Amino acid sequence: MRKKLLAFFFCMFFFPVITHAASLAANEIARQLGWVETGENRCGGYYREAPFDTSLLSTKDAISMTSEQGLFSLHGTSMTQGKVTITRLGQQITASKAYIYRDPVTGKLSSIDLIDHVVLREPNELIVAEKGHYEIKTKRRSLQGILFRSAISNSAPVVNFKTLDLDKERHVTQLSAWGRAKNFIQNEPKIYLFDDVSYTTCPPLASVWNVLADKITLNKITGRGTARNARVYVKDIPVFYSPYLNFPIDDRRQTGFLTPTVGSDSQLGYSIGTPFYWNLAPNYDTTITPLFTSLRTLQLSDTTRYLTHKSKGEVYLSVVPHDKTFSNFQSSEFDLNKNSMNPIVQAELNHLQNASTSRGSFSWQNETIFNEHWSGLADYTYVTDDYYLQNNLGSRLNQVTQNQLLQDFELRYKGEHWGFMGRSQAYQTLHPLEASQFKNSYSRFPQLVLDGDYPDNKFGLDFFVSNELTHFNIANNPGLNEKNPMGNRINIQPGVSLPLSWPFLYLTPRLQYEVTQYQLGNVDQERKKTMTRSLPIFDVSSNIYLDRSLRLSEQNYRQTLEPQLYYTYIPFRNQNSLPVFDTTQNNLSYDQLFLYNRFSGIDRINDANQIAVGLTTRFLEEASGAQKAKAGIGQIIYFKARQVTLNNNPTTDELQRHSPISAVFEYNIAEHWSLTGNSIINPKNNDFNNQTIELGYKSDQNHIVHLSYSFVENGDIDNVDGPQTTHGNLNQTDVSVVWPMARDWSSIGRWTENWNQKRFLNMLYGVQYDSCCWAVRAVASKTFISLTPKSNSYMYNTGFFIQFALKGLGNIGKDPTALLASSIPGYEANFGRDF
Questions:
Q1: SS3 for 325?
Q2: CB-based contacts of 700: which residues, under 8 Å, 6+ apart?
Q3: For residues 95-109, average pLDDT
């Protein structure tokens, strides 16, 4: 029995399918398929289709038949010799000889036998055969000893072709499959069955791969192909066998196994995934993927997408049962940290020991529009343990900030004058041992916001109001016996503004009055449980618009000059006793200069007696109005020092009379080149507080360059010397490139370097070959995860991806698209997609 099996597999791999056309030379195959080699496109040519003769046709079902000579009979059998042509709209059959059969009762044509040099043509389709049979009534066709060609579409096939298109010679440049077969049967329109067949999408004169199968079905109604007992050959070398293959012939969806994914990284080891796609309905689908890994045995994930007339969304669920590697990690971390006297370490260690070795994650993103006024949003992510993301198991999860997972639900109303939002928002904060400490965030449930706006009232006044009621709750950080205040915050903020405008001047004075009340629990006895803050807010914004025409480098431009003044007055209110639930201090930017509050939330409202001064100039192309360049610079002048602070301790900056200078710059250097810059400059020493410069180029998806430099004072996460030294400053470069190396070859790379510590943060490099009918790419990565406090060392995750694409058949390997899209600005996922 073993000898028989060995003989079977030996014959299967090393003796290809033999058909009538197997002995044809490549040039003859190309000629019969209509291939014209030009070298002008990726495939190096096109398929030429001669015009269809539709002059004798009046309707879609009409048939015309011509012959050079023959013997015709009104009943029984007729025979034609010479070239016989049978034409109907969108279809033509020619042969050297034909036997025509008629219905003995009606005398109508019933079937035709075609002999020698049989050619069946449809738009984008061609079959050359030795002989065939055609049923007139049922339109059933069968051919023997064939050579075929069929275009692979990017959408459902067009059934009714315009006659005008058929009357002209056509050049088919889209991806097309061709092959040879012993038999061909078409029982239904657009469904082709082949026996003893070969299949490829490569050009006839440069065939790289093909599939040999006992049977292949191309179903252009569903957009899928199937192959039985399929062997995949690359340059006549067998590389893959499957008793059943299901592959796309256009971009529509259908239930079936997708091509496997293969890869490796430092957290999962070697891995192979076998995704199964289930097309539940036209607006529902799910993909189930068992991922077998050498380090974690198995990860089973499911992604379900849905689209209704009101909602769209995606649900992702992943399970890793009995993770042995995680169990070993639990044991090693216990042995390493069991004697630590740090209560935080002991709390996190206890949490780690109690974590289940059966791990998982869940996420749900949803958008719903109930009607023209009401809508809903869900964005929820959860993992079972603190190390799930570090182990590279959650690549599809939405991480808001490092180790923070958003859990948000919203209900919104938008009317002509009123808007409402109801929200439940929380964050799952992860606390891994070998990482910096992350503090828990307050949850908001419920948060109710009601905003009203009544513009264009008497005297041009605009009335508005903002109301908010929020309940805040928080869990203690591991190992810390904290007493964090919790409770309700009510905020009411009505206001009125008077927008005034002239051809060159915009002026808007605005007055608001804010009343905020806190009702607190979990506070010390000496601290008030109910506190109220009320204060007026007055500001005036003004913009001047001036422009002129000028000519630079033989181009006509319109230059604008836009001075901007923004005055703010807010009296001081002592807010030291108020809790800080959801408020941070904003980083200074050019736009931030013209906001009345330098804090992001309402737990702190700064006192202010200040004026912001800004100047912007733009260069607009006179003909198109497109912006060529923009530059802006601004600063705040404080008439008194600020007393309201976030942590109740004024910083040096808050005592200054001038804010840092903020500058922005944008320049479209050429059609595909752009340069942008943002700078914050300390006016006392003219040094940069932070700075970002970006240079970008993108002409298409294969030509991308992105260069950036960032400087942030005291912004290095690896700062161990304190904020007063330059060792804490972050100096970082980020370079990413997608660029061709030669015809069909391109390189992919990214390098992020922390020059202060002389350590790289992220490194990615790869190469891609993408030709007419196949593609391959290999990508290696090393990505920074976090900083280990004990040893002050960097934690990385390394990975290697290799992916093959046989166009018109499918992709094999681990897909790095998500990694590339997040690493390289402007990267588009088009690997292996020519249709």
A1: helix
A2: none
A3: 81
